[in-house]
Amino acid sequence: MSEAATAPGGASPDLLALFVWLSPAYPVGAFAYSHGLEWAVETQDIRDVASLIGWVDDLLRHGGPFADAVLLAHAFHAVEAGDEPRLVEVLELAAAFAPSRERQMETLNQGDAFVTATRAAWPAPIFERLAAIWDGRVAYPVAVGIAAAAHGLPLAPTLAAYLNAVAANLISAAVRLVPLGQTDGNKALAAATAAVREVARLADAVPLERIGGAALRSDIASMRHETQYTRLFRS
């Protein structure tokens, strides 16, 4: 078992690695992406804290973040079981599942950056095996799932930490774009915790063949963002 997995004395899992990997300071470039939220602000779909809370809640429960959580869970289980064909299946689906060019760029760029940073600072054999079993790029949630399993971290907190980081990044973008104050940003973060807890629990039970989403307005936003006249974010 990895040193990251057990706290001193073996009392409980040491989750410090998750705080590091999913911190805004970890070099994946998450700050550059808004997941289509920039277009939603432009069209006034998001105009205040209430509409932001609703947008983020819908995404967590029905959109890209929910699908990402399912992919993360399946990648985690594949690595944990040493099932490389299953891991390749998850890698393939994750790379192809994005509904727009910008969404694919968002997940693959962050995934590649996460693998590079984690292989260097938190090495594990699976990172060296990736090149042998997969010649494509690695989506962000799959990269996090691989790292968590490789270092013996529990899945449930990994899912919750990942989803919380996604919500925090969206809210940070909205605070700058709407604009909103820090108090409203904190209210939105607090409101997101209910969905984070629920989705972290549900995502592990979704079969890979049933993965999907229904946040169509967000998918449209990611497509429209490509041609938005003024942009601060890459997606």
TrEMBL record:
Top-rank taxon: Bacteria
Keyword annotations for this protein, in alphabetical order, are:
Chaperone, Cytoplasm, Nickel insertion
Q: Where in the cell is it found?
A: Cytoplasm
* Pfam families to which the protein is assigned, alphabetical: UreF (PF01730)
Q: Does the keyword S-adenosyl-L-methionine apply?
A: no
Primary localization class, coarse: cytoplasm
Q: What does this protein do?
A: Required for maturation of urease via the functional incorporation of the urease nickel metallocenter.
The protein's assembly and partners: UreD, UreF and UreG form a complex that acts as a GTP-hydrolysis-dependent molecular chaperone, activating the urease apoprotein by helping to assemble the nickel containing metallocenter of UreC. The UreE protein probably delivers the nickel.
Family to which the UniProt record says this protein belongs: Belongs to the UreF family.
Write down what this protein is called. Answer: Urease accessory protein UreF
Which organism encodes this protein? Answer: Ancylobacter moscoviensis
Give the taxonomic lineage as stored in the record. Bacteria, Pseudomonadati, Pseudomonadota, Alphaproteobacteria, Hyphomicrobiales
